[in-house]
Specification:
By secondary structure, the chain is an alpha/beta fold. The protein has helices at about 45-55, 85-90, 100-110, 125-135, 155-165, 180-185, 205-225, 225-265, 275-280, 330-335, 370-375, 390-395, 415-425, 445-455, 470-475, 495-500, 535-560, 565-570, 570-605, and strands at about 5-15, 20-30, 35-40, 60-65, 70-75, 145, 170-175, 190-195, 195-200, 285-295, 300-315, 315-320, 345-350, 355, 380-385, 385-390, 430-435, 460-465, 475-485, 485-490. Helix 7 (about 205-225) packs antiparallel against helix 8.
């Protein structure tokens, strides 16, 4: 029997004066639940959270909360008005009557590495996010409602938060675009889609296949209702299948690019590209040799980058990772010529045309309309890739309603502002994209769109991101800024970095005994690495599985090709459609797994 809910919405409807945002929503949250709420920007996810907290009252339906239940919340944009220091802000999260438990505030601030007396107005986005997390956690809540908790957090803090939430015994509801975060935490998925809340008992890792099944079921139902709806659903369903096909092509291309990049990274000190090649539009984009940079701090000189070398070529997609304050921005400015190194050299191709994505979105005038942001000198046409396009048509590519052309920027949500900045950025002619945390506030549909655009970008990409899944899907190499000047480059994405990074140093007291000396004439034999038994067995079995799935898809497609099937047996048509979607999803997953294992085997044995 399911445990009773601690917090619930029952038959809730919200209209906001006109068309319902959603209606008839039932959402119970019980102790031990780990739920994620997904949906497009504007679907009403944040509104649903505010209904749960009681900040917004529904137009219909009820909200239930067990007496004594404590709710911890993290809004997308925390309100810090009325608070001066971090300590004051976090302490305000203590339950009424429990203000004496200030020791919990100190404990939370210590775990989040936050100085209690720091003024809120001086905090970076990452520190403010950590402070808001501390305020949500300090009350020892029974239910946690977190809206985009990983925004602006660095990777060590995200991994710490994952551990905290995995151990959390209350009810948890997450809104997040971070797939790796959700894959680890979310046991059930709630999908807010066109005013309906769809519920899956499956974990988030199975969301895409479940979504495809829902589209197939909608397609069947729409045959009975409206042919126009049917055609639109068919377009959506086929669009997902086509995207999967394109994704597989990009996975293969990315694997090859990573192999090429591995050869450059590992052999970079042996191969030199002449500067003259870059001057004539050759492959070399950025070359750094033994670059170092120090800054004066209260405790003395501190290295941000020390003796780092790299060569970035045309078409490379390089991710930069590291904790906040480790030196990512310093390294990025060194590599792009915005900051002079203390020692070492940086060479840039003279033909570079950079375009910069700023996570603070300072390039957007809050009083300008969408039309004027893209056409600052008037008119309605914008030149993209050498072709003139109407601004309304171009904005549709970035999921904007054409009726929003004269909407001022200040009224847009964070995700909408990010999409507008992306639209402005991609309209500029460039051969070097520099992107600082572009995934913040984006929904998953827009993340897929961004990945698709960046995968097809012909220039060079420098990407600062804490989104592990996004890095894994996109970059050819990862530069890790570890702090205290330590910077190293690894072929592949974040998962490859984790696999290749050296283990932490062994403490001196526990240092292992030194091995016996080996003469130069007799080097120790290098152990040949290979896949583990389980992975190798899976790799061996996958080709046969791919053949079976391909044959099943052909059989199902042939049966569905019968134009009289739906009229003759609508139920059979529905079952076959659902089976076909499921087989397509299984085939895409199996192909991706085969590519992943094959690439891993090649890396280990090569």
């Amino acid at each position: 029997m399911a445990p009773p809910p601690l917090l619930a919405l029952q038959g809730v409807t919200v209209t906001f004066g006109g068309t319902p945002l959603f209606e008839g929503v039932d959402l119970p949250i019980a102790r031990g639940d780990k739920l994620t709420l997904v949906g497009r920007n504007g679907a009403g996810k944040s509104t649903l959270l505010r209904l749960l907290t009681g900040e917004v009252l529904p137009d219909g339906g009820d909200r239930f909360i067990q007496p004594g239940c404590r709710i911890g919340t993290l809004p997308q944009e925390p309100d810090i008005k009325g608070f001066r220091t971090i300590h004051e802000f976090v302490a305000a999260g203590l339950p009424e009557g429990d203000e004496d438990a200030l020791h919990r505030v100190d404990a939370v601030l210590d775990r989040l590495r936050l100085p209690a007396d720091r003024e809120l107005a001086l905090l970076s986005g990452g520190k403010l996010r950590r402070a808001a997390l501390g305020r949500a956690l300090v009350s020892q809540p029974d239910v946690l409602l977190l809206d985009e908790p990983t925004n602006h957090l660095d990777l060590p803090t995200i991994e710490w938060l994952e551990s905290e939430l995995l151990a959390f015994r209350g009810g948890l509801l997450l809104i997040s675009h971070d797939r790796a975060f959700l894959n680890r935490l979310a046991r059930n998925t709630l999908w807010l889609d066109r005013g309906r809340l769809r519920v899956s008992e499956r974990p988030f890792s199975e969301f895409e296949s479940w979504q495809a099944e829902q589209f197939a079921a909608d397609d069947l139902a729409s045959h009975k209702l409206d042919r126009k709806i049917a055609s639109e659903l068919l377009w959506m369903r086929e669009g997902i299948s086509a995207r999967r096909t394109r994704n597989m092509g990009r996975v293969r291309s990315l694997q090859q690019l990573r192999r090429d990049r591995a050869a450059e990274v590992r052999g970079g000190k042996q191969v030199k590209l002449a500067v003259s090649e870059a001057e004539t539009g050759g492959r070399l984009v950025i070359e750094a040799e033994r670059v170092s940079k120090q800054f004066q701090t209260s405790s003395g000189l501190r290295y941000m980058v020390k003796d780092f070398s790299t060569r970035i070529l045309r078409g490379d997609r390089v991710g930069l990772i590291g904790r906040n304050g480790a030196g990512k921005t310093t390294l990025l400015r060194l590599l792009t010529g915005k900051l002079e190194a203390d020692s070492g050299t940086v060479r840039l191709a003279p033909s570079l045309e950079p375009a910069y994505f700023d996570q603070k979105r300072e390039a957007l005038d809050p009083d300008a309309t969408l039309r004027r942001v893209l056409c600052p000198f008037g008119g309605d046409a914008i030149v993209v890739d050498g072709k003139s396009r109407h601004v309304a048509s171009y904005l549709k590519d970035f999921l904007f309603d054409t009726r929003a052309l004269d909407t001022p920027v200040r009224t847009l949500s964070g995700g909408e502002r990010n999409r507008l900045l992306l639209a402005k950025l991609f309209a500029l002619p460039s051969n070097l994209l520099i992107m600082d945390e572009p995934t913040n506030d984006l929904d998953m549909d827009t993340l897929d769109l961004l990945q698709e655009v960046l995968s097809e970008y012909k220039g060079t990409l420098l990407l600062v991101s804490h989104d592990r899944d996004f890095l894994d899907r996109l970059v050819t190499s990862t530069i890790a800024v570890e702090g205290d000047g330590v910077v190293a480059e690894y072929p592949g994405g974040y998962s490859d970095y984790q696999r290749q990074r050296p283990p932490p140093p062994v403490p001196v007291a526990a240092a292992p005994p030194k091995p016996a000396a080996v003469t130069a004439a007799e080097p120790p034999p290098k152990a040949k690495r290979k896949l583990g038994y389980k992975d190798q067995r899976e790799l061996d079995q996958l080709p046969a599985r791919l053949e079976v799935l391909t044959a099943q898809i052909k059989t199902l497609s042939d049966r569905l090709a019968d134009p009289a099937l739906f009229a003759r047996d609508a139920a059979a048509f529905g079952r076959l459609s659902a089976d076909l979607e499921a087989r397509h999803a299984e085939l895409a997953a199996a192909e991706e797994r085969w590519l992943e294992l094959a690439a891993l085997r090649e890396e280990l044995e090569g």
